[in-house]
Amino acid sequence: MQSFNFKCPTEIVFGRGAEEQVATKLREYGASHIFIVYGGGSVVKSGLLAKVERILLSAGFAVQTLGGVQPNPRLGFVRQGVRTALAFQADFILAIGGGSVIDSAKAIAHGTANPGIDVWDFWCGREKLTRSMPVASILTLAAAGSETSDSAVITNEETGKKAGLNTPFNRPAIAFMNPELTFTVPKKQLVCGISDILMHTLERYFTSCKETNAFTDLVAESLLKNVMAQSKVAVENQQDYDAMSEIMWCGSVSHCNFTELGRAKDFTCHKLGHELSGRFDVTHGASLTTIWPAWAQYVWRDDVPRFAQFAERIFGITSGSDEEKAQAGIKAMVEYFRSLGMPTNFTELGIGVQDKNSIAYLADMATAGDTKKLGNFHPLDKAMAIEIYQLANH
């Protein structure tokens, strides 16, 4: 097992009615001016936004709201949020929504705490983030795990670049997690969220680390099997509290770094998928299931025993050679994604077959003009990224 440091300070308030504790908990963190960020109309129509505002206002907090976060959250919205939060003198950012809303809230917190710096400079590396302000979330979609993660992803709509930032300052102070708030999400968002949770763990399971990580493996494998089992229940009945609870909690665990302890995460599929989202505005989870089959077919020979172990422990595939088991495991994972109705190639993703120039553009963006290699399981340069995109290009 490799050496590691692990700190996940996010306080979790989990269960029915968790959001009703928002005023009590935020007061414990010294908040007075709460800036609420949310997405579309769902939290308005459901009455959740009004409920939270009522709880906070009756407790004596000053409250300002800003809605309009989109999937693949936009830099333009973040900049607007920073201006509004500064004018309001916000001292706490509260996200009500899923990963895109929480990532936007994180970015707004960073920008508000550093008013002399354009927030995009943190994402593109021109500035180092050294301070922020506290963020809380009321989670309405189990998917990104942003409620406990040290990462946030923003899309610069002016350049089409979607980029992630990893920093301890991205860890939210508190997450309110009521599985009942996920009961009414559209089916597409549910299955995309399930896929995102699985991919966060798969991208940590397949890495260059060859040291023994027995416990970390068991945690990751149990999470994968549990989410896949619970998804069968949830897809049929989104109001099954137990199934939705399991998926919600696994989403948080999958992206808080716990399933990577003792080894490094890879996240090649995320980086390749980000370029699909940045250019074509496709759903994040869908971009991941599109890329994973091509990536797995490209790299599986680098660690046949690892892929064979995956096939045995996740799908119960025990017959045949390691090579045969590895291939069968990849096929089973692809079939599972398809059983959810998730895309596994460009045509299924809805973008159609791309020409050579488009593929080259995606690879160039992913590798920063062939100046950065992607991942560690099988580090990719631009030419290799092109090959993986081509494997998905049908």
UniProtKB/TrEMBL annotation:
InterPro entries xrefs: ADH_Fe/GldA, ADH_Fe_C, BDH-like
Domain of life: Bacteria
SUPFAM superfamilies from the UniProt entry: Dehydroquinate synthase-like
Pfam families per UniProt: ADH_Fe_C, Fe-ADH
Domain Alcohol dehydrogenase iron-type/glycerol dehydrogenase GldA residue range list: 9-179
One Gene Ontology term, aspect cellular component: cytosol
GO molecular function, one term: alcohol dehydrogenase (NADP+) activity
Domain Fe-containing alcohol dehydrogenase-like C-terminal: 196-390
Keywords from the UniProt entry: Oxidoreductase
Protein name: Iron-containing alcohol dehydrogenase
Organism: Selenomonas caprae
